[in-house]
């Protein structure tokens, strides 16, 4: 089976909407690459973490912030379809 | 583990957004009652079906329509927490 991306979010923190937005971004970009995105309300306050088939790829507490959507897509791409280009957003920032 | 509600939708039909909306409705109402909602892009054209732990509770082809959100919540409630009241939307329509 294709991988499942889990978005574990703290419902009391009001993070359902941003998680649902991220789910839509992920599903639009990786329609063919994933089995689906699981929105999972956490029982742990302040938790926002992203797992692929149970393996953590991002944790808000460890990072000290939420992921940028571009960054999140790159992290997911690296696991589910490493050859996939994410288009113009995938380029490195220009050297100053 | 608490039940997982799966929304299987046809991505080519453009049904991601309504599915993501339904996911948010379900997660707002059943935060404590479900493990989560899985948004699953179907490989079958025209498919929209809802499963709880793999057991189908609604299928667009069989019903000939999408579910009303109230109806969907009642179907889910009957499985995940039959005692739960869904508030004013849960009352029967008045007898004419």
Automatic annotation (TrEMBL), chains A, B:
SUPFAM superfamilies: Thioredoxin-like. Keywords: Redox-active center. It holds the Pfam family Rdx. InterPro entries: Selenoprotein_Rdx-typ (IPR011893), Thioredoxin-like_sf (IPR036249). It comes from the Bacteria. This is SelT/SelW/SelH family protein. It comes from Larkinella humicola. The lineage of its organism: Bacteria, Pseudomonadati, Bacteroidota, Cytophagia, Cytophagales.
